[in-house]
Write a structure and sequence with these properties.
A hairpin with a 4-residue loop joins strand 2 (59-61) and strand 3. The chain is globular and about 55 Å long. The relative contact order is 0.13. It has a 4-stranded mixed beta sheet, sandwiched between helices. It has helices at residues 3-11, 14-26, 30-41, 90-113, 131-144, 148-155, and strands at residues 47-48, 59-61, 66-71, 117-122. It is 48% helix and 10% strand. It has a domain at 29-80 and 117-145: 3-Layer(aba) Sandwich (Endonuclease, Chain A). With 165 residues, the chain is an alpha+beta fold. Bound molecules: zinc ion.
Length: 165
């Protein structure tokens, strides 16, 4: 790295830096893509990062009244070996991560009140060893959430279609 590059990096304002972080954290990060691709192949159709819903869920499946959050273990404080409090800058990290956890809890409560089923997939569950089991479990859970009404409609002969004149 040459000194010029370092100078440029240092000239980033705080806002620019947080914008970069938001970009990296909020858009098609790899774990989300893994889940989406799998669901798409199975024929599930979804919306991505729906801003109209609390917490902007990564995957929204309206037909199944299901939203999915694909959470990073660090940012969302998963109770797993992947989460450890940083040893430095604790004055910054502890309140920040704690706020994230509180926000997650609030969003889940709001979504549940609105009639959505909320699924959380953790980044550590998408590691090579466990990804197949995790994705199969997610697909099963989504299907279980299909409203009973729709299940019946599927079985019958589309009674809601208008009759031919
Ligand atoms: Zn984890």
């Amino acid at each position: 790295m040459n000194p010029g590059q370092i100078a440029v990096a240092d000239n980033h304002t705080k806002e620019e830096r947080s914008l970069n972080m938001a970009h990296i954290a909020g858009k098609d990060t790899k774990p989300e893509v893994k889940v989406r691709k799998y669901l798409w192949r199975l024929g599930f159709r979804y919306r991505k990062n729906d801003r109209k819903l609390p917490g902007k869920p990564d995957i929204v499946l309206p037909k199944y009244r299901t939203v999915i959050f694909v959470n990073g273990c660090f940012w969302h404080k998963h109770d797993c070996p992947a989460f450890v409090w940083p040893s430095s800058n604790q004055d910054y990290w502890i309140p920040k991560i704690t706020r994230n956890v509180e926000r997650d809890r609030k969003n889940t409560a709001l979504l549940t009140e609105m009639g959505w089923h909320v699924l959380v997939v953790w980044e550590c569950e998408l590691k090579k060893k466990t990804i197949d089991d995790t994705l199969q479990r997610v697909a099963r859970q989504i299907r279980e959430n299909l409203p009973a009404k729709e299940k019946e409609q599927k079985a019958s002969d589309s009674p809601l279609l208008p009759l031919e004149p």
